[in-house]
Design a protein that fits this description.
By secondary structure, the protein is mainly α. It has one domain. The chain contains 6 helices and no strands. Helix 2 packs antiparallel against helix 3, helix 3 packs antiparallel against helix 5 and helix 4 packs antiparallel against helix 5. The longest helix is centred in the C-terminal third of the chain and has 35 residues. It is flat and about 60 Å long. The two termini are 29 Å apart.
């Protein structure tokens, strides 16, 4: 989100310059990325070990396809979630912090989408291997709906609640 899209300081209760706001937004983005980077890197590492397991050759072709899709999305998530770091290195000292924050936020959002898809695919792979393909599909759909609810619907409801002035009677 660009600084132009944010409310003015008098509405946020902050008195900061655009540069200070960009610095704060960058630091907040980095904190968020630290949480996700470790998780996706561990998940990616786990996926990389699966083809070397003895029972991998027993996987149904559909489950092999799920595995390959999960590995692809895990790679994309890793790339996108780590990407703000090299972008920062490339832009460091060029006085384009607002553009860096905007690019980093966009990369993080895309990476989170890939992460959610990866987790849904891994869930499908696990349930599909243990209980069958139908259970895997059901598990993936339930997982995807849970991510949509927690990562999209809940924030939208909170924004709607905040902008309508409702505080739920608190």
């Amino acid at each position: 989100m660009s600084d132009d899209a944010l409310p003015p300081p008098e509405e946020t209760g902050r008195s900061e310059t655009p540069a200070e706001r960009s610095d704060r937004n960058w630091n907040e983005l980095l904190q968020e990325l630290r949480v996700t980077q470790t998780g996706i890197q561990i998940l990616s590492g786990f996926l990389l070990t699966l083809p070397f397991q003895a029972r991998f050759t027993e996987l149904d072709p559909v489950l092999v396809g799920l595995f390959l899709a999960a590995a692809g999305f895990a790679t994309a998530a890793t790339l996108l979630i780590v990407a703000p770091v090299p972008v920062h290195r490339a832009l460091f000292g060029r006085h384009v912090k607002r553009q860096l924050v905007d690019a980093g936020a966009a990369l993080a959002k895309a990476g989170l989408v890939c992460l959610a898809i990866t987790v849904a695919l891994v869930t499908a792979l696990l349930f599909g291997f243990v209980l069958g393909t139908t259970a895997g599909v059901v598990a993936a759909v339930v997982t995807a709906l849970a991510f949509l609810a927690a990562w999209l619907v809940l924030p939208l409801l909170l924004v709607r609640r905040a902008t309508s002035g409702g505080d739920g009677g608190r």
